[in-house]
Amino acid sequence: MSELTATASCTAHAAVVEASGEVVAQPLLVRRVAWLAVLARDLTARVVVARWNAADLDALASGVGLDGRGLPSKGWMAVRRLGWGVGPPSGVHVCDRVLRCAQEQAARALRLALYRRRLVAAIVATWPRDAGARTGAEWDGLRALLPDGVSAADIRNRTRQIGAYLDEHGVFPADLIELEGPPNVAAQVVLAAADRQLVTVERTGDRTARLRVRLPLVEFPASGRDWA
Question: What is the mean predicted confidence (pLDDT) over 69-76?
């Protein structure tokens, strides 16, 4: 049987610094979590913006890294195999596990772009005589090219977007990147990409758990001493 993983929202009420035993009240904990989330967001955005071009999206879609090996399913590993490294701003110290989290989020955003790219290409390739009323044959031709799981709303919205581009420019967009800029990146940390050096989670009761995660102690950590 396959393993099922459930997710649920939760609230962290307080924290303790492991080395010193200092109790961290919720308002300060919120700030420290926000500092980490912003660091991850900025690193993620740098990867996404740098790779928002046809050549790099083609490289990701090919499924093959620079060394000729297939790209791993884990996003952060795929990004690294493609040579899409990223580092923190000058003077800011970020451990490799945080970089992994950022690269994982970037890979997920870019892989989602590949899905949207296929959708745009399919609609352009089968553009109907009347974009507001496709014939049965036109629908069949479109569905034959669409990726799985595309909803009617997705098709309708993308058709309108492409139609607006056509009206403005007089030609069809050659690629998704001509229709829209890089996606906005959320201030979040994909902890699933990290290992025990950054995060562990332990169930402590039916409705409680203990999360152990390394957080920055200041907004711009300058060294490993600014993390705990």
Answer: 96
